[in-house]
Amino acid sequence: MKYYILFGPPGAGKGTQATAMVEKYNLRHISTGALLREEIAAGTELGLKAKALIDAGALVPDEVVEGMIENLFKTVKDVDGFLLDGFPRTIAQAEALDRILALGDEEVTSVVSIMIPDEMIKERIRHRAAIEGRADDASEETINNRIKTYHDKTEPLIDFYRKAGKYAEINGTGSIEEVRDAIFTLMDKF
Ligand code: AMP
Question: Does the reported pTM lie above 0.90?
Answer without folding.
Answer: yes
